[in-house]
Structure formats: C-alpha cells, structure tokens
Batch of 3 targets.
Target 1
Amino acid sequence: MSGPRAPKGTYDLLPDEAALRDDVVATAARVFGAHGYRRVVTPEFEETGLFERGVGEATDIVRKEMYTFEDKGGRSLTLRPEGTAPICRLYVEHGLHKWPQPVKLWYYCPMFRYERPQAGRYREHYQLGAEAIGSPAPEVDAEVIAMLAQLFAELGIGGLRLAVNSMGDPACRPAYVGRLREYLRGREDELCADCRERLELNPLRTFDCKVESCRAVLDEAPHIDEHLCPECREHFDTVLGLLRRVGLEPELDFRLVRGLDYYTRTTFEFSSDRLGAQSGVGGGGRYDGLVEQVGGPPTPGVGFGSGLERITLAMGAREAPGLGPAAFVVAFTDEVRGDAFVLAQGLRRAGLAVELDLAGRSAKGQLKQAGRSGAAYAVLLGLEELPPETVRVKALAGGGEEDVPAAGVAAWLTARKESE
C-alpha cells in the first residue's frame, strides 16, 4: 500500500528548493523596489463574480479552470486563479485612486487553476507579479517590460525572446473582431469544437488554441495591426521605441492575445528556449478597462505575471545559496551540554545563525555534524586544557583555531563575519 502523496498538480518544496525560491523572490523584491513598486497581499479566495467580470466569461480560466465553491453562508467564492483582478479590487476598495498615480504594486502568492499538470505548470503554482495602475503613458508599459527583463537577466535566465503585440482599444478593436469572426466563420469546419465555441463568445480567444488544424487557419487570419487606430498605433510605436533604446529586441507577434479578456493595447510575453514547447516564462500587458469592470472609475493599468516554477526551470540546475550557520557549538562533555545550549541561545540573540547538537552525539560526531552543517566555525566547550569561561573557536575550512573568552565569542564571530 502506497503512503500519502501530495494532491495531483501540487508539489512540496524541500529545504534546498525552498532556499532557491526565497533567493528568486528576494531578487525580485530588490529589482521591483528599485523601480518604486511596493508589495501587497490579497486573500487566497475572492468573490467569484470578480473573476467572471474581470477575467472574462469566455476565457478558459473562467469556463474550465477555476476552483469555485459555496461557503456556509451560501456565497460563491473562488480560489485566486490570477493576480491582476484582485489587485484592481484592492485599488478600488482602499481608495488608491487618491494616491499619486500611477500606483505601483507587486505581489508573490499562490494561484489555483484546474489544468493538466505538466513541466512547470501545476494546479497550485506560485506567481510573481507587478501592476502599475493609474497612467495611460506608454512609458509605463515599457517600464514594466524592462523591469521583468532585468529580473530575468539578474537571475541568469538565457535564451530569452520577447514577443509583443497591440490589442487595440474599444475604439478600433471591434472592427477587427468583426472581420476576424467573419473570416473564421468561412473556415468554421476546419476549427476544433472549442474554437467554434470561442468564435461566438470571443473570436480573439481562438489564438490561444494549440490544435494544429486551428493554428493553420489562424496563420492566414487578418492581423490586428492592420486595424489599429492612430492613437493605438502611436502608443505601440512609442513602447517599441523605448524598449529598443534600452537594449531589448521586441519581436512582433499578432497571435499574442494572452489568455485573459481584460487586455487592451500592449501585450507581451517572454519565452526561453530552455523550456521546450511550453516556453513561456512570464508576460502581461495593458488593461485600461479592468478597474472599471470590477466596480471602480475608468482607470488605466498595466502589469505582468511570472510563475516561479517556470522561472526556476529556465534558470537551470543551481546550487542552493549558502545558508550555513556562522557557528556550530560543540560540547566535549555531557556536563557542559547545558552551557552549550545557553551559549548558542546567546549567540542567536546577538544576531548570529548558530546550531548545536540535539541528538546526543559524541564530540567526534558533533564535529562531523558541524562540517555537514556548512558552519564557518565550531565553538568548542569543555576541553580540559582550556581555562574557565573560555572556548576554542575552530575554523572548519582552514583549520586554524583561537581561544576566546566565552563572553566575547559573539563579538569575535561578528567581526570575522563582517570582514569576509
């Protein structure tokens, strides 16, 4: 009989994997903070209507992938499937329109979607995201794209491709949607059942299809850039120009509509050749109507999301960052085990990472465990040759040692740590 296992589409992070994840998030916090973005946290679940209104009832997320349930009060709630609609709800609920605009926010949290698990895609996955709400300026689009590119560069993700598109706006997109629907109806018998349904709900969603016969039809479909109004064209050209001026090489991709209905104008996606067929590593776009759709005033916005699982896959094999303690306290006799415990606690209160034996090992076993722990030093108590209230500090890498008053060992270790 097999033992308990994590639910399908979920996974555990062991200590080294969690350390790598923490390192990625810390890098993101630094990069995002340098651009003026501040972290927020939203609930794990929201009212279902938030996603139906914001994400779009024609999307696969709402139609097939949401974890929706009724609570004991009869309310329909949904585990968060994406991050932007909750941020817009937060913006409206807390009156962030009164802050200086744009309001720049970032988040790191789990998302939940019922989809087929595959490499880097899970039913519970973690996402980094950033949103800039309150400005229609193309410079904001360029900033969020360049910020995500900087994060990927600092994480050492190679083989990146940046695809961009413009979705137009409510002034010019309807004419394109009408022409696309007309074209697809003329070849409806070549489309899969899902795309025939999307044709009626929102024909733009057909570009999400991975069925080869549908993709062949869409290769010959009219392009949205042929229908952009002058304002959308100018906005898009400005974004492209800014990206090129900061060293990025955006490639135009008229298929890039993303999987959500709220996008307007700019959409973008980074992909990595390290990820195979499912190569997307992060993307987003502008959503000038979303705040209004969730109940706020007309407010422009732009942002992105990037899955932590996709990021770490694209980073390739990495060692966990060095997290060994500053010292490992070793008790050479049973009589000083209590003293070792007290010393370790004192060193921790002084801000040092310290471990000690908690398994009754011999002195030799403790020294071996000190080496395994990755500690820089072993602090030895109970040696017969030492004067009272004195310890020996042994460098585990170089082998040098020094006798130090027990009361001064925290200062000694701190000084060595700061000089490294």
Target 2
Amino acid sequence: MFLRKHYRTVVLSDIHLGTAHSKVEEVSRFLSSINCDRLILNGDIIDGWHLRKNGTRRWQPAHTQFFKILMKMMENCGTEIVYVRGNHDDFLDNLAPMSFANIRVVKEYTLDGANGKRYFVTHGDIFDRVTTQMRWLAHLGDMGYTFLLWFNGVYNRYRAWRGKSYYSLSQRIKQRVKSAVSYISDFETTLARFAESRRCDGIICGHIHHPDDRYYGQIHYLNSGDWVETMSALTESKEGDWNIVYYAEVELDSESPDMNIVTNIAPAS
C-alpha cells in the first residue's frame, strides 16, 4: 500500500504562476505526493507582474489545478495554508492580513518550530535594494532573467533529445558570475542579522531562487528556492529537522492512480 510522506511544515516559494517558465505541473505532482500540517506559500506564487503585462492568456488550466490541489489538502488533511506576499504578487498588499477557512494571507509570519525554535518567515524582497528602491531596474532585470530562462528551455530540449536529465544552465551561470555570488551572500547575511534583531533563531525566505540551509553564527538561514529552475521545497519533520527537497523525477504509483510520488530528491547534475 502506498503511504505518502508526512511533514509538519512544507515551504514553497517563487512558483510564478502566469509565466511560461513556471513548473506548475511538477509542483502539483509534488504536493499530490505528500501530506503536511502546514503549507507556507512564501511569495511570488502568482506572478502579477507578468499577468498585468500579458493579460490572462498566460493563465493555464494547470495553474487552476494547482489551487484545486491546495483545496483538496485543506479538505482531506486539514492543512493550514499561510500565503506570504512577495514582490511579484504585491497585489496582495491591499488584502493582507486576511484569514478565511484554513488560509491566511500575510506580509510576514513567525513560525514556532517543533524543536522550540522561532523562525521569521518573509519572502525576502524587502531586503533587496533593487526591488524596493530601484523598481525600474528590477523590471529590467526580470526581462533579462526571462530571456535566460527561455534559453535554458532550448538547452534542455536539446539535452532531452540526447537522453540527458534536466540541467539548470541559468543557475550555473548565476553561481559563476562574481557579482551574483556577492549579491546572494549579502542578501543572506542581511536576513540573518534581521532575524537576530527580532530575537528569532532562524529565518525562512525565497526571492533569490537559490535554495540553502546554513548557519550564520547562531542564526539558521533557510531558503526554499523556486519552481522555475531548481524545483525545490523546504520540509520540516515532526521532530523539527529541516531539509531541502529537490524534485527530480516523478512516477505514477500503480496502486494509487490519483497520487504521484517523488522518487528522486536530489539536485540535477
């Protein structure tokens, strides 16, 4: 009999529904394979920037199906859903804070971990000077990033034709560019200092599409990554242990045709 993995908390961010590069089918399969007590949607779940620019033609049935899966999780498992606004879904600013049924829409959130530690949860864009002070540059960078993702898609179609697995060329480029590496490091240390100022034991964020699990001094820094490139999530066990889960391969369970399970949770190489 197929048993789903159960987590105390799952954190997803940067799905960017409404864009051509969102891995919505993969994240839907991942959510269909698990149970969790709490699901934190940590910003940029819906990409309002692209929807405003392109209208609703980018909205696909698969995007609607994603929200149906969330409703099924609430109905069948009693999952609590916390939606933290990001910069691409900043249209939620006029709604937050708001609660209805098992859903909360907030600008920030404090999570009490199973191990007794407190984690400040934020998308992270408010700590990014480009998005907060130079919005025009953020939009320009978004255009360049979209082109890079398009090229990444072309490259991976070639890899698939050669029988090779998915590879995030755009992630590798970001890891090799010195300014990008410096930006990520500055971002992480800034958030760690903020968590310390709030007397929290850790901080959970997204925004930079760079999954991570590390300590800055006594502060536990966690980044859930994204569902555009890395296809990753953060999971908390009932004992309070945190892990980064990478979606690599999925298969349909023969005994449960309506459930999909993650069979390989390692980063693409």
Target 3
Amino acid sequence: MPKLVDPVVFAQPHYEAMAASIANELGAELGEVERRVFPDGEHYQRVVTQIADRDAILVGGTVDETATLTMFDLGCAISKYGARRLDLIIPYYGYSTMERSTIPGEVITGKTRSRVLSAIPAAAAGNRAWFLDLHAEGIQHYCEGHMVARHIYAKPVLLPVMRELGGEGMVLASTDAGRAKWVQSLSNELGCAAAIIIKRRLSGDETMVSSVSCDVEGRRVVIYDDMIRTGGSLLGAAKTYLDAGATAVDVVATHGVLPGDAFKRLRDSGLLGTIACTDSHPRAMELESEGLRIIPVAPLLAQKVGDGSVS
C-alpha cells in the first residue's frame, strides 16, 4: 500500500483531540476549518488549509444528526477542492443497532446513513471509510459506489487492559448471548475461559437467566461489550456473575455512549469495579473526570489508515 501523500488531518467538532493525536502519529499537518453557526441554526464551514493533491483525513463520529451532516458537508468540500484521497475515520458509528428491519415499515437507519456518506463525491484516488468495532459487521457493506469501507477491530488496545484487570485465572464474559462470538474470540487470544449468560424468554418483554455457561466461582470476571448505552443489561449481567460466585466484575467496552446519568448509575451500583472504554465517543471523554477509564485509539487508527491495513 502506497504511503500517504502529504497528509492533512481535519476534525469534526468534539474530535479535535483525537484528530491531533492521529496527525501526530502520522507526522501530518492538522488542518484548519473555519466554522460558524448563524442565528437561524445554519452551519457555515470553510476549509482554510490548502488540500489540493494531498491525502485528506477527516476524523469524526456520526454521534447525532448534526455531526453526520457536518461530516458529509465537509467531506464534499474536501473532495471538491482537490484532495488526492479522502479518508473518513469514524470511531463511533451512530444507528449501528438499526442495521435491519424486524417489523414492516421500519427505516434501516444504519443503512441510510451509510448511503449519505457514500454520496460524498470521489476524490481523485478514491474515498475510504474506516469504522471501529461496528455493532453489526455487515454495516460496512452498506457503503455504496466509490466509497470503500474498512472495519478496524479495537482488540489490540483492549486486550492489554483486559489482562491487567482480570489477572491470572480471569474469565472473560458477555452480557448475553448476542456478544458470544466476540467474547469467545477475545478469550482465545487471552488464553482464558469465556462465560456467556443464557436467558430464557418468559414473554415479549421479560426474560429470565437460566444459566451461566462457565464456572466463575472464586474468579475475577471481565465483561466485554462493544457498546455501553444505558447500562441496564450490564448491571443485570454483573449481578448474575456475582451471584454465581465471581469475586469481582470489571467492564471493558469499545464505545462508551452513556447518556444522561447512565455512568453514575453504573458507578454507584456497587456491582462493578473498573469501567473502561475507548475514546471513540465524545461522551466517554466527558466522563473521564468522574472515574471512567479511557483507552486511546488514535495510535491504532493512525497505524491502520497509514498503511492501509485492516487486520
């Protein structure tokens, strides 16, 4: 894979620190964007840094509607003004749980957002979208036309933290069977046992834990999940493992969404030890001062984009 050509890194709002770290890792210039919001709510952007014939990298998550359109608008401008290549680094992809319809009439928003990003005009050497630990791996295939999608796994930065927290004899666990495949894969690399909670559905909105797939008694459990939102399932899982005899339960996740008082409820529950997330979502960075442990992903993202690899 050819090296990046005179790279310049731009940041979407709330991702300035990550973009600066990626630029530093790549030895790239940090690009400047002039931004204003008018009284009627309209957003103005202007690419200040010269980008003609350079490889441009735009860092930002689709954390809300404004962020998604900001990335689309800026990506269009970067392509229009002559970037050689455009790389979108998307550490957190919003609507990733809406990747398919389960009842007639549902909008598959995870797919429509990919179509929006795919509509960014192609730079001379093409456009690439880099996703980190998608909730559903198939989302990368929703990108269309000239947009080439790449899926980066965060395990190189997560595994060391899991080993540190779990120690000798640890058990890597999931909140439910939905993450069983990921947990099994990660436990193989850690050389530890994996635990899955098996649930039985009692009704349309009620489930009951029927078993835990691994003996956790007297052992430290580290729960892995790709995403923490309200944390309800996480608390239920932690209680299940503690009731089954685990000595402690820690948590490692890729995306810390944690709206409202979600982190406070997790922290104050008394069920969890360390809670660690990457800095893929801006909310996680806001909660670092409240005790959330942050795992930086900029070096991993820079390395993958810099050499074009996805393994």
